[in-house]
Fold:
Amino acid sequence: MANIFREVDEELKRDRASELARKYGPYAIGLAVAVVLGVLGYNLWQDWDLQRRSERSDEFNAALELTADGQNDAAVTALAEIGEPDGSYGTLAAFERARLLAEDGRRDEALAIWATLAASDAAGPALQGVARLNFVMHQIDDGDPVELRTMLEPLLVAGNGFRPLAMELNAVLSLREGDREEARQIYTEIADDLTALFGPRVGRFAR
Structure:
């Protein structure tokens, strides 16, 4: 008798398993396929991304070789073809292109690139800061003081590594506007800041 009950119990289990397989099997298979495709797609994307980075590295180095050979126009073109600033080679290419354009007297084009980099989250805070400083320094003598101060503003926050230099540029703008007292106050603030990297240089414009 016990064997009969055991056989019935096993039969019920098989029927239940068959029912569950019919009911949920397609979903399980679909999920498994989705997982496999997801993993395959991610691996393919990684391979593509690695290949693309390698290609951009080669393109960037080739552009630098053109610069070293004095072929600046060709280098600017090659750097532009690397792509938009993206936090990697596109960003490095943009910085180098802006530098070459500025050296060639094409300041407006360089300023446009630095403005783009300053607004690019992909570049990261440090490179954004460098772009802001370049934007200001390359027109410190004739740029719109309001626009330049706006560009410097994020760098003037306490704790920002570029703050001392941004403060000094701000002081130069005050001198341009004839406000020597404000410039002197800024230089005094820099000198009083024991963490300032540019303390020894203060006062050279205020005297």
Q: What stands out?
A: The two ends are 111 Å apart (CA to CA). DSSP finds eight helices and no strands in the chain. The CA atoms of residues 105 and 180 lie 31 Å apart. The longest helix spans residues 2-68.
